[in-house]
TrEMBL record:
Organism: Eublepharis macularius (Leopard gecko)
The entry's keywords: Cytoplasm, Transferase
Name listed for the protein in its UniProt record: Sulfotransferase
Family: Belongs to the sulfotransferase 1 family.
Keyword DNA damage attached: no
Any one Gene Ontology molecular-function term assigned to this protein's record: sulfotransferase activity
Length: 300
């Protein structure tokens, strides 16, 4: 249902999205696009790849704890978003993600939300390792809705019924969920991609963390693995100022509207979707996902 003409159409200070190759992206990212595309990856780069709100911060913290071999003090050296440069991030006059990555010594761990077709070519050419986390579409939608409510640097999501339509149409930042997960699922057949599921990580975190340890080439003892499992649990991370975006200014994120780390559960969509929305979504989902072998074990 569209809003009435003239009623709060563009909440103050909320930027609109631009577009690159048919994919909606923040305008500041679009303005830096030539620089992002010419980014020079290195063979020992590890790129964390996710659709927004699919467990990005969670997997970042897991990877960092593995790389620091469970040393909590080292993992507290900086907020997680400074430890892993976000390559397409741009918000002048602050250093861009590309600048942060260029200044970082190797081996680098970087982050992106880009779909495969927009990733800088050098990542493929350098045969980098990619770590992808996928989360079921319904929970992604709910989490993204609440994130857009509190984030001042992306468009206002409108009401839940409005956002439901926007998300299904893929008119959100970083484009359609469906194409994103399918693209990365296909990429794993020809590139070094470890493809993880958020739902599996919730169900058996130790098992999934051990996959990551093996993928990044570490060998850790049982006690260290258990320590990582504990310190990357939602309840612990929610109280970790280096993970929960506590230091981000109110002008960027208003966590009184919705906390950055909100619930971290599987199935929260059931508290948001109406029966009619669920039926419509399922029908649309079956059609859009008919051409892939990718399936999600829960959430539907």
């Amino acid at each position: 249902m569209p809003r009435e003409q003239g009623k709060d159409l563009k909440p103050e200070g909320r930027p609109e999205l631009g577009e690159v190759g048919g994919i909606p992206l923040p305008k500041t990212t679009c303005n830096e696009w030539a620089r992002i595309q010419s980014f020079q990856a290195k063979p020992d780069d590890l790129l964390i790849c996710t659709y927004p709100k699919a467990g990005t911060t969670w997997i970042q913290e897991i990877v960092d704890m593995i790389q620091q071999e469970g040393d909590l003090e080292k993992c507290q050296r900086a907020p997680v978003h400074h430890r892993h440069p976000f390559i397409e991030w741009a918000r002048p006059p602050q250093p861009s993600g590309v600048e942060q990555a260029d200044a970082m010594p190797s081996p680098r761990t970087l982050k992106t939300h880009l779909p495969v077709q927009l990733l800088p070519r050098s990542f493929w050419e350098q045969k980098c390792k990619f770590l992808y986390v996928a989360r079921n579409a319904k929970d992604c939608m709910v989490s993204y809705f609440h994130f857009q409510r509190m984030s001042k640097v992306i468009p206002d999501p409108g009401t839940w019924p409005e956002y439901f339509e926007i998300f299904m149409a893929g008119k959100v930042g970083w484009g359609p969920w469906y194409d994103h997960v399918k693209g990365w699922w296909k990429a794993k057949d020809s590139h070094r991609v470890l493809f993880l599921f958020y739902e599996d990580m919730k169900k058996n975190p130790k098992h999934e963390i051990q996959k990551v340890i093996q993928f990044v080439g570490k060998q850790l003892d049982e006690a260290t693995v258990d320590k990582i499992v504990h310190h990357t649990s939602f309840d612990v991370m929610k109280d970790n100022p280096m993970a929960n975006r506590a230091g981000v200014p109110l002008s960027v994120m208003d966590q009184s509207i919705s906390p950055f780390m909100r619930k971290g559960t599987v199935g929260d969509w059931k508290n948001h979707f109406t029966v009619a929305q669920n039926e419509r979504f399922d029908e649309d989902y079956r059609r859009k996902m008919a051409d892939t072998t990718l399936t999600f074990s829960v959430g539907f």
